[in-house]
Amino acid sequence: MEELAISLKNVTKNFRIYHEKRNSLYEIITGFFSKGRYYEKLCVLDNVSFDVKKGEMIGIIGRNGMGKTTLLRLMAGIYKPDAGSITVSGSIIPFLGLGAGFQAEMTAKDNIILYGKLLGFSKKEIEEKVGDIIQFAELEKFQDTKLKNFSSGMYARLAFATAIQVDPEIILIDEILAVGDIGFQQKSHEAFLSFKKRGKSIVVVTHDLNTIKQNCDRAIFLNDGKIQALGEPDKVIKAYTSYFAGLQK
Amino acid sequence: MKNEVWKKKSLIWDFAISDLKNRYRNSVLGFVWTLLEPLFILLVLYVVFTNIFKSSIEHFPLYLLLGLIMWNMFVRGTQLALNSIHSRGQVLSQIHIPPEIPSISSSLTSLFMLTFEMIVFAIFLVVFHFLPPITAIILPLIIGLEFILVLGISLPLSVLNVRFRDTQFIWTVIIQAGFFLTPVFYKIDILPKQVQNILVFSPMVQILNFAHDAMLYGTLPTSENIVIAIGTTFVILLIGYAVFRRLSHRIIEEL
After folding, report:
1. Has residue A36 got a pLDDT over 60?
2. Would the CB atoms of A77 and B96 count as touching at under 8 Å?
3. For residue A110, how many other CB atoms are within 10 A of its CB?
4. How far away is chain B from the Cα of A79, in angstroms, using its nearest Cα?
5. For the stretch A18-31, what's the b/e string if a residue is b when 16 or more beta carbons lie within 10 angstroms of its beta carbon?
6. Mean pLDDT, range A47-70, rounded to an integer
7. What confidence score (pLDDT) does residue A43 get?
8. What is the pLDDT of residue A92?
9. pLDDT value at position A98?
């Protein structure tokens, strides 16, 4: 049997959609006596099960608001599922979107150290890696620049470089890959390959179908909280595009 | 769960330091304010209670300063905790951090500030030529008990204030009332006996009595009072943690 990095079994996640968000105690008390519930349940993920194998890269596609980011947050342990179970083997999972825990008022270098600490590394461990990260992100000139002066491409490069150089067992990526230029995309492709070769896993959420085609071993098409298609990237992309063609008719 | 907190323990320290830095950011005097703040309040209370109300407490300035420092730790710790999760919403919704960490670190911040203020107290001891009795060595234990109390209240406050934003206003009122119901500027025995019988169950009352007696009058707490103080503190911690566990489940979504 192949070793699993992440295993999701019948995961269900509901959100509360507040019609009128009642934040204060007074509103809760008055709301208690008035009729009707003040929030609706929105089922974002409905009975989702799949596995991520060690050394595998999985891409998740789907329309906006279909639960892709929620799925990543569940895997990262930020949200807890309402039903089902999520088993993660491997210590750290950075959840990586634009702005993930970075502070605009701090320099690139300080942000790397802060980010590493947020992920649970000691200051010493992370300080040893700062040079590599800056080099990988091609930001040598800007290591002491405050992040608020970075372009969005530089920002994404820094976030990606930090995550990959920190060398976790599993990496979760949300929508940042398309930002880099061709040279950086080539580099990140190579980084993915060497990462996978060492038996590590990647889950990526993106709208860039090329990334999925080139890098992923399998893909998932998520629609209305359910897995619509799972398997070979080509097949899943086909299902996705034909679904869109169906919508336009 | 506990294991996870332990793994990210360096974060507790970092959050506490950044809380301290944020407090005095953009202020000219910076850390000096930690020392000046209690001194100004001391000055006001001292003038009021020596000239207007004529306090008969022995070593009154020292009594008042020690009371203020101990009380301040309680106020600051719990008030920092109120916004500890809320103000870190952005980070907490991107990276999984055990929700206990913000309130543990805000409690730690209040402990740091108490340590700074104790320097002021030490200076006062010299100025007043007062040599603390040998019983003063139990002060760290009393402060340790107060830290557990602050933590036990901070944990539920940090999540309650995300769920119900009124918590911060209610807590401010409780703190105000608490200041007058705790022997910071008076001695507990001036109160009617019935009131005293109720107030013994306030851990802050016990903690302040312990500190005053040990530091200034060379008296150790009675074993009965020790049992009450430790008992109530741990009951608060247990209830607080239970509330925290119940509410922290969905807390990131509520941010």
Report:
1. no
2. yes
3. 17
4. 7
5. eeeebeebeeeeee
6. 88
7. 86
8. 62
9. 60
Q: pLDDT by residue (tens digit) across B25-44?
A: 767 777 787 778 778 888 88
Query: Which chain A residues touch B if contact means CB-CB below 8 Å?
Result: 15-16, 23-26, 28, 73, 76-80, 93-95, 97, 99-101, 114, 117-120, 122-123
Does the global pTM surpass 0.90? no
Interchain pair B95, A80: CB under 8 A: no
Chain A residues close to B96, C-beta within 8 Å:
76-78, 93, 95
Residue length of chain A: 249
How close does chain B come to A185, measured CA to CA in Å? 24
- A28's CB contacts (< 8 A; 6+ apart) are A22, B164
- B170-205 pLDDT, tens digit per residue, is 999 999 999 999 999 899 989 999 999 999 999 999
Contact B12, B104 (CB under 8 A): yes
Min Cα–Cα distance to chain A from B156, Å? 16
Mean pLDDT of A167-189: 78
The chain B residue lying nearest A21, using CA atoms, is B254
Interface A:B, Cβ pairs < 8 A? 55
Give residue-wise pLDDT tens across range B85-134. 988 887 888 788 889 999 999 999 999 999 988 988 998 899 889 999 99
A26 and B166 in contact by Cβ < 8 A?
Answer: yes
**Partner residue opposite A25 with nearest CB, options B8, B164, B249:** B164
d(CA A78, CA A6): 15
Please indicate whether, in this complex, the C-beta atoms of A101 and B90 are within 8 angstroms of each other.
yes
Amino acid of residue B91? V
> What is the maximal distance between C-alpha atoms in chain B?
57
**Pure H helices in A77-181:** 108-118, 123-136, 152-166
ipTM over 0.85: no
Strand partners, A219: A59, A231
pLDDT of residue A97: 65
Give CA–CA dist B247/B52, Å, rounded.
48
User: Structure tokens of A166?
Assistant: 């920190």
Q: Please give, rounded to a whole number of angstroms, the shortest distance from the CA of B239 to a CA of chain A.
A: 20
Minimum distance, in Å, between the CA of residue A118 and any CA atom of chain B: 7
Q: Domain limits of chain B?
A: 30-254
What distance in Å separates the CA atoms of residue A230 and residue B210, rounded to the nearest whole number? 66
